[in-house]
Amino acid sequence: MGPLVPNIISNEFNLIVALIAGIGFGFTLEQAGFSSTKKLVGLFYGYDFTVLKVFFTAGITAMIGVLLFGQMGILDLCLIYINPTFLWSALVGGAIMGLGFIIGGFCPGTSVCAASIGKLDGLAFVFGSGLGVIAFAEGYPMFEKIYLAEAWGPVLINEKLGMSKIVFGFLLTAIAFIAFFLTRLIEKRVNNDQSKLPKKRILAYVSAVGFAFFVLIVIAVMPDRYSRLESRMNQAFAHSDLTSVEVPADKLATEIVNNYYRTNIIDVRSPEAFKAYHLPFAINIPFDKMTDRQWKTILDQKHKTNYFYADDQQLARKGYLKAQFLGKAENYILIESSSDFKNLFSNLTPPDSNASKNELNTYNFRQKAATDMKILVEALKNSTEPVIVKTSKIKGGC
């Protein structure tokens, strides 16, 4: 298993958690009879398919849970680490493990389970596994070529088959229940069992199958978190009057000069447009990247006020609305576009001799604000970069 919460729970404490989880897993295996070689190898001789049923059920349950939590937005599927595939080593290693399973009656996990309750065959299997690990480690240069051959990287079967996750979920669930039914028939035939399942157990099986497909149907028809967010944002965009949260460039310039440490100037344009020109102290969060986890600390906080701007008012308003649904920060929209702000403060044109007092005052204010912003940017250029929260994938696996 991998670390539970990277960067929060230390590696050392993760080992303690892994130890406790491992003890619980081993206890469950032993209680289910998986320390018995007779039960384990029954899979290969056809008289007991408990192993297949248990692990297939665990896999189906985990798959449906992951799909459901991903659809609800509770689990970010992009952060799940997928073990890379090395085809030849997987095939050769799988064949060796399968052969050892048939001969010895254990897989590595169940052998430890059997050894923990003092079974000599389990102890012998664990000792043999240790010898195998040492032999592989010492002979790695000899095995390296085939070990690293056909490196496919992180492979998802549904992508290889060209189907969506939910379609693959339906397919795998159907295969599992068909396998359960057929293996039941094989067990009865091999064991010469003429008995029939009690009605209560049949009802429980049918209910479990129905519930699994019901959850999959819910996942299939339920819009994901981002679709729901997009829909709510579009509805709000069509019906909301945002004039109360719009601020003119002069007010924003005042905030930058006097309260730069309490403001986030957020540019929702593309990185290319941001690089060409951006407002002082601006942070580039492209509109289509606002849902990325790394921006959560900026969009969902109560210590600073966020000001959104773009090249056009429509995009700035959409950025504002999306931020409203993503976090709890106090948000505002700059009325002017980025180019308008640039013209007002960087390309100032002196008023002519007939200018009114108000026009002269505005010119003087903007000239001073432009100078102050330039001084501030120069003085704080090394301390105003936003702190990017790096996302880490949990590495591990069975």
From TrEMBL:
Domain of life: Bacteria
Transmembrane feature ranges: 12-29, 50-74, 86-108, 120-143, 163-182, 202-222
InterPro entries linked: Rhodanese-like_dom, Rhodanese-like_dom_sf, Sulf_transp_TsuA/YedE
Record keywords, A-Z: Membrane, Transmembrane, Transmembrane helix
Residue stretches making up the Rhodanese domain: 259-350
Protein name: Membrane protein
Organism from which the protein derives: Aquipluma nitroreducens
